Task: structure prediction
Amino acid sequence: MFGTIGQIASSITSLATSYIDGKAQVQKVNAEIKKKQLTGELDLDLMSVSKQDSTYKDEFVTLVFVAPFILCFCGDWGRTIVSEGFQAIQQAPDWYKYIVSGVVASAIGMRGVSKFLVKK
Result:
């Protein structure tokens, strides 16, 4: 009889511990969310995600940047296309390069750009 009572007490204690640990974890996550909201980090992430849900622009930008890499493996004709393309980009006006950079930054989100620019 005492063994059964001990098992029940142990189960209740285990359940209470799990409940308290769960509450502590929820409070920890809520504190982290609050911290990110205060620093503005969460807002940028949410804006980036909401923009990416409604457009294929990020997939297009990825394809544009991967295409030269793939063409380099397609023989001399692919390497020629890539080489001539990069030469044409070097001759493009600066304002055009800035616009393309802005489109890329918009497609991958400003936090994605900051990961490349800021060394940790």
Remarks:
- The chain has a mean pLDDT of 74.
- The helical segments are 2-39, 41-53, 57-71, 75-91, 94-108, 110-117.
